[in-house]
Amino acid sequence: MTAINVATESPALQNEQMRPGQTSPRLALPTVLFLVATIAVPIAITFVYSFLSTADIGTGVKWDFTLSAYRHLFVQDKLDGTTAFDTRYVKVIWNSFVYSAITTVVTLILSLPIAMWIATRAESARNFLVAAVTLPFWISILIRTYGLRQLIDDNGPVGGVFHRLGLDYHIIYTPTATVIGLIYVFLPFMILPIYASAERFDFSLAEAGYDLGAKRMTVFRKIVLPSIRPGIISGIALVFIPALGSFLQSDMLGGGKANMIANVIANQFGQSRNWPFGCALSVLLIGLTVLFVQIIRGISARSGDQVNLV
Amino acid sequence: MTSSYLAISNIKKSFNTPEGGTVHALDDVTLDIQSGEFFVMLGPSGCGKTTLLRSIAGLEYPDSGVITLDGQRIDDIPAYNRPVNTVFQSYALFPHMTVAQNIAFGLEMEKLDKAEITSRVGLALEQVKLAGYEKRKSSQLSGGQAQRVALARALAKKPKVLLLDEPLSALDLKLRRGMQIELKRLQQETGITFVFVTHDQEEAMSMGDRIAVFNSGKVVQLDTPREIYRRPVNSFVADFIGETNLLDGVAGTDGITLPGGGMLLRSQVAEDCAIPDSGAITVAIRPEDFEITDTHGAITGTVRDSIFTGDTVRIHVTVTPEVEVAVSLPSYGARIPDRGEKVSLSPSGNSARTVAS
Prior knowledge:
The structure holds two protein chains of two kinds.
Chain A: H1 2-9, H2 11-16, H3 25-49, E1 53-54, E2 61-62, H4 68-74, E3 75-77, E4 83-85, H5 88-119, H6 123-134, H7 141-152, H8 157-164, H9 175-200, H10 203-211, H11 216-244, H12 248-252, H13 261-269, H14 275-302
Antiparallel strand pairs in A: 1-2, 3-4
Helix pairs in contact in A: 3-14, 4-14, 5-9, 5-11, 9-11, 10-11, 11-14, 13-14
Chain B: E1 6-16, E2 22-33, E3 38-42, H1 49-57, E4 64-69, E5 72-73, E6 84-87, H2 99-109, H3 114-127, H4 143-155, E7 161-165, H5 173-190, E8 193-198, H6 201-207, E9 210-215, E10 218-223, H7 225-230, H8 235-240, E11 245-251, E12 255-257, E13 263-265, E14 279-285, E15 290-292, E16 299-308, E17 312-318, E18 324-330, E19 342-347, E20 353-355
Parallel strand pairs in B: 3-8, 3-9, 6-7, 7-8
Antiparallel strand pairs in B: 1-2, 1-4, 4-5, 9-10, 11-12, 11-14, 12-13, 14-20, 15-19, 16-17, 16-19, 17-18
Helix pairs in contact in B: 2-3, 2-4, 3-4
């Protein structure tokens, strides 16, 4: 009875099938079209191009179906007509994986204490400290990376200290510099989700653990850590996956010696003029990303945590 | 006099307020708690009772003073080594563990062997009547069940003293009454000393063997519930425990002149209360101690309203524009005065008391 009355009193609600607060799908349409044009279409183009041939002259592709771009990942055609297993790209992928893994581990180790410390401050101090963590986002990543380059340069202030101590110092344009750059850029992405979990942590649980006979480290390991695990998993996802595809740090700090996948991809569209191979590498990177997202999803589902990934 | 089991001597603890002031949460508190006692610490919020409980647990460190348990000094021992356990107000069950894992946690910390842990977890769950709930997650428990698990987790450790921090405050009235009886039974069965913090005076009265009433960081009275109710040491205790009419009187040679001009005779005041020959004095009379008298009573006034509550009728009598007294009369037998009626009231026997303000 009541439902019928409501419907007759407000025909608009009946026609549109809308609840208060709900908006028309038509309003979302421009955004949906924009996202399709900027995400779905380029991915589709990338996928299709990876199966095409290199243009005979200049840039672009030739519409001849071939798997040679994927073959090129692992196999090298020598000038004398023989073929050999090509370790270069496998090594680049492995390097990208290792740099990202080191970045993830180091940012995690650095983030846990600071996130816990911020979470246990008074509310006003917490807001200030979180703002301080997000402060780097206000400055362009390019400028920050230039700044870091000046800092760790052989003739920079850090080098000066080493020099005065009579120690050898050379970091710039090495993988170490790349990893330092990655750690620097991705640290806030690890701190913030861990902090968000730690802030919700009920510290009376830690007190209960202490009261029941657990020492400080045991309380942290058995009570605090499982409670902030969703934040840790989010942080790992937010650091590892973008780090895998990062370009700027290896380009500017690693000396552009093409030591991460993204640099090799960029080369294919520049100097090397091999679009299909660049696309094949991109497809591989997307595939690796999806794989790691799924692995992290699986871990979080198995542990029964609520982790918001994508 | 039995020797004290848990002895708290001269504990002081102060906090800095955000405004820059200092609050004495515990202002030189000394208490002796007996073995096997159900000891209640009662007081309004912010009176220091919880700070003292946390100091006994080792979750708070007093600025000065000594706490000894069974002859051993414990205030310098970290919480994880103290033979006391706490039931937290929020229960503080570990959300990522099952009921059994929660209870086993404290036993695993003692490095007991598996069989021993399993049997003690089972026993603890039986004690709180939750046998069969081992595999439940703490999120799948009702408030009352979570409360019992928190209790079982602490009891499984076989503490020398069990500390309970307002454990029943989150439960609804009916459940709370049931848990009060159960806690009392558990305490008697296990023989463990319970130290129970509450702000609910009714809860304190119904459970405590002895009650320490706290106010502003001090113990203002320490006695049995009956004594505290009958002989409050000051107007704070008289007002906080049960309900009391506090009347400002003036002492004279015959007795005390009360608001409205009535005279409270010396014979109507309890013998243990001293009355000076002159000066201002506060008189405390419980609502249920009033009788309606035909002749000139100690207090006369007009009935403002009368409320039937079942076994009693409560009436409020306006004595002067500023003074009103609450009276509780049995709802059967005596005639209940109507609203607007003028009544004359006197304390029955010598039930009036004088109290320090």
